[in-house]
Amino acid sequence: MSSRLFLLLSILPVVAKAWLLPVTPTYTTRRHDTTLSMAAGPCWTNEQGRELLERFGSIFEPEEDKKYALESLLLSPSQDRILDACRDEIKKASSSRLARRRWPVRLPSSRATKGCYGRILAEMDSGRLSVELNDGMSPVKLNNGDEDEEEELMNKKRSNVLNLLIKLSTYSKGVWTLEGEMIEDSGSDDFGATYGKSLQEVSADRR
Hints:
Layout: H1 3-20, H2 27-38, H3 45-57, H4 63-75, H5 79-93, H6 97-100, H7 110-126, H8 149-169, H9 174-186, H10 199-206
């Protein structure tokens, strides 16, 4: 028997055993997967938008994981599409009763969570609210340097989503509690009332 054949027969049981053993996921593996998904094409943006909203709005997601996801988003060439997907997810949820109102307790519902995002962003979009970031960080303002009025408005809305995610990346109490604190600080009894409403409905409410 040749030495090469002997060596091959010797290592086959070891290789087979390695294939059969379960692979334990590690934090490093999760980080790598997150980075890869953030760099994926447009077909992944809806899924990424949903995942970001759930992770950043949760009280269970570790801060380190949220910070890494935020870093991946900031470096992603698909950043604009991912932020737009976040807004689309929030808008789609606005037709749900779970999202249209603020509940007195935190509900284990993705639609209720998206409603919290929606009301905060409605206030930010109207200019009635600005999010204070940690460590004296200035709010991010996205622009391409040569934008028309429509693109300027889109970049403002993207910036609002991004700044809210930055805030939540180091906020451990979740988006439901953050909304409650913002309502209390604002003293407003119609906080986020324009969430889910058309421009015509908003105009009618103001008459």
